[in-house]
Structures are given as C-alpha cells and as structure tokens.
C-alpha cells in the first residue's frame, strides 16, 4: 500500500466513510484527510455531511456540484449507446463512479494530495470502478480502501467511531443499502437478499405503485438531436431539468422499476432493485428512433457494440482504450438520430406508439400495401433465387 501524507476521501456521510477519517490517521499514519462529497442530484442537503466530516477529523470538507457534468458527459453518451447491462440495467449507479473518481483525482491535484481513498468493501462493484478509473486518470496516485481491510462489522465500526467522537446513528438504520443520484436509485440487502421475496413498496421512492398510478394514459413526446434528448412535448429543456421532468412524469405512472439477479464484477450473483424512470425510458425511445434513421446493418452491428460498451461501464472501464474506441463508432452513428418519439404511459408501462424524423429512412411508397405501392414485386423472384442458392446447393449435396 505504501504510506500516504495527504488523502482525498470520497465521502458520503455514512458510518463507513466517517470512520475512514480517524482510521486513516490513527491506523495508517495519514497526516491529513480531505473529504469530497459529490452532489450528483441525490436530492439531499450536503451541508450537514460537510460538517460531519469536519467533526470526524477532516482538515477540509469539500462539497462539489457535478450534476450537470454527470448528465452531459456520462448519461447522454450512455443513452446514445443504449447502454443496458445484461439488457436490463441502465447503469444509473455505475455511471456515477467514473465521475466521482475524476473529481477525486482533480481534487488531489488541486490540494497536493498523494493518495485518494474510498469506503468500498471487497465484495462490491464500486471498488473496481473507483480503483480502475483512478489508475487510468493518474497511475501515480496511491489508492486506499480501509473498509476493504479493517475487517470490522457495522457494530464494530460504530464503536470505533465513537472512540473518536463520531456519534452513532440515533435512529434505527434501514435494512437496505441504497444509493441514489439524479439518474436513479439502487436498493439491495435486507429481505431482498432472498430472490423469491417480492420487494416491499417501501423500498421505492421515484416510482408509484401500480395501484396508485393514474387510471388514464398519458402521452409524451421526447425530442432528440443527434441522439441526445433535448425536449419534452415540444418544450426545450436544459439537461438536468429534462431528466428531472421525465423522472417525475414517468415515475408517476409506475415505469422504471427493475428487479434482477445481476452478475457482479467479482464473480458473485446479487439481487438488485433499481428505479430509473427517465433513463430507462430515454434509452427505449432512443433505440426506437435509431430504427427509423439508421440502416439495417448499422443498427444490427451497433447492438453488439452496445453490449460491450455496457459491460465496460459496469466493470469500471469507462476510461479504457476500448471504450474510447467504441465511443468513436457510436458518435458517428448519431449524426442522423434526430427526431421525436411518442410514449404512452399507463400502469407501469412506457409503450412506444409513434416516431418521426427529418432523417427517416421509412419510405411509405415502398412500405404500403395500397395503390401507391411502388415496390417491384417481379424482382422478388430473382432475388429469392440468388439469396437462397447457397442453401439450395447445400441441401442438394447433403441429402443426395
């Protein structure tokens, strides 16, 4: 590990990251700990967190706004890539990690720190995402992960913190582990560790239960420019406001819940619950608009790229050479992805019911079965003969 003099600690205000402050100083000889809390739209006042860090022994407590950056530089590229890990999870939590790592590295440079630290355990995905991203951004920085090594239970950690004046949580803690940002929430642990147990309604906050959703369907039009969402129902929105608006509208109809068995980076399966109404709907709408504006071969080839891209994000390789190379391909495909997609929201569903684009490749005179049909039906016979010839030859020689 090597000794560190000054450390930038990714700070959430929870028990583990609070205990990390005195632990780094008392057990590992760190002289100065500077905490950094990233505001990524989690919807809470971070000032109490700032004060808590100072009380726990931090020399400086930084609170930095990264919401706009989060949407423009991380969420929008993921939407353009239709990024769904295992074709289900829109990476709402995973996308935040490379940005937090970037903020840690920037703070280390600004404050002259020789190390960065986080409170991740050795069992989850986030340790991989933080460590690999930090290595990519500054391979000379030391990376400290006390919670990966101290071997303390939650009760032990609370007791350790009390020795240094860190107050124990006054209320009974939730049995669930929850991470939240503007793009969504991830919920795990507690009763959810039994894959057969239905998630109780209390775990959700961004989406309504089906019983509480409106009895009347709502239609919304989402406008895209070069693959980036820019408007809702014809009204232009700034990036953060657009996500906030769609989270509220779509979540109100109960869409955006995911319950899945997920394959973690470290090789174990975990049961994960996600809420990501806006992000999930935007990916579905964007993918549909691509079907209207891209050629068949590009659309079909891009699906494989999207799967690889999603796995890279999930596995902490946002800053890898392969991800950067794939980004170049994806951006090239987005030049024509401009238009509007209409969603019908009703009882937990977001159904695509319409789409239009100035770059549409849909030719009505070729698609129609009416009198306007200009497709040359006579050409089909020759096409089918040539197309099927290899199969015919194979069949003739293998069945004779």
TrEMBL record:
Its EC number is 6.3.4.5. It is found in: Cytoplasm. GO terms for molecular function: argininosuccinate synthase activity; ATP binding. This is Argininosuccinate synthase. NCBIfam families: argG, PRK00509.1. Residues 6-167 form the Arginosuccinate synthase-like N-terminal domain. One of its GO terms (cellular component) is cytoplasm. The lineage of its organism: Bacteria, Bacillati, Cyanobacteriota, Cyanophyceae, Nodosilineales. One of its GO terms (biological process) is argininosuccinate metabolic process. Its main location: cytoplasm. PANTHER family: ARGININOSUCCINATE SYNTHASE (PTHR11587). Residues 176-394 form the Arginosuccinate synthase C-terminal domain.
């Amino acid at each position: 590990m090597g000794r560190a003099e000054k450390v930038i600690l990714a700070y959430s205000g929870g028990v583990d990251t609070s205990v990390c402050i005195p632990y780094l100083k008392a057990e590992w000889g760190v002289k100065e700990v500077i905490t950094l809390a990233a505001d990524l739209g989690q919807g809470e006042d971070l000032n109490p967190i700032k004060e808590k860090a100072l009380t726990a022994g931090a020399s400086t407590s930084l609170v930095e706004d990264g919401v706009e950056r989060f949407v423009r530089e991380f969420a929008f590229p993921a939407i353009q890539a239709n990024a769904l890990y295992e074709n289900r999870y829109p990476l709402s939590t995973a996308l935040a990690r490379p940005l937090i790592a970037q903020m840690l590295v920037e703070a280390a440079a600004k404050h002259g720190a020789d190390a960065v630290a986080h409170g991740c355990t050795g069992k989850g995905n986030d340790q991989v995402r933080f460590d690999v991203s930090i290595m990519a951004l500054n391979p000379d920085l030391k990376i400290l992960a006390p919670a990966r090594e101290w071997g303390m239970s939650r009760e032990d950690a609370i007791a350790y913190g009390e020795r240094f004046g860190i107050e124990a949580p006054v209320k009974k803690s939730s049995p669930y582990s929850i991470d939240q940002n503007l793009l969504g929430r991830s919920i795990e642990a507690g009763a959810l560790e039994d894959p057969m147990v239905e998630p109780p309604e209390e775990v959700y906050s961004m989406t309504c239960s089906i019983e509480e959703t409106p009895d009347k369907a709502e239609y919304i039009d989402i406008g895209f420019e070069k693959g980036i969402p820019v408007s809702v129902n014809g009204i232009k929105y700034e990036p953060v406001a657009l996500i906030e608006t769609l989270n509220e509208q779509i979540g109100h109809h109960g869409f955006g819940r995911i319950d899945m068995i997920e394959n973690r980076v470290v090789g174990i399966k975990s049961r994960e619950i996600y809420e990501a109404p806006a992000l999930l709907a935007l990916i579905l709408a964007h993918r549909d608009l691509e079907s209207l504006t891209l050629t068949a071969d590009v659309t079909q080839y891009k699906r494989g790229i999207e799967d690889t891209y999603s796995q890279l994000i999930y596995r902490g390789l946002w800053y890898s050479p392969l991800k950067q190379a794939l980004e170049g391909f994806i951006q090239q495909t987005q030049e024509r992805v401009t238009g509007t997609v209409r969603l019908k929201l009703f009882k937990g569903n977001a159904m695509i019911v319409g789409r239009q684009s100035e770059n549409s490749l849909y030719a009505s005179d070729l698609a129609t079965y009416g009198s306007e049909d200009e497709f040359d039906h006579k050409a089909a016979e020759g096409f089918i003969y040539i197309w099927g010839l290899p199969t015919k030859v194979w069949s003739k020689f293998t069945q004779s």
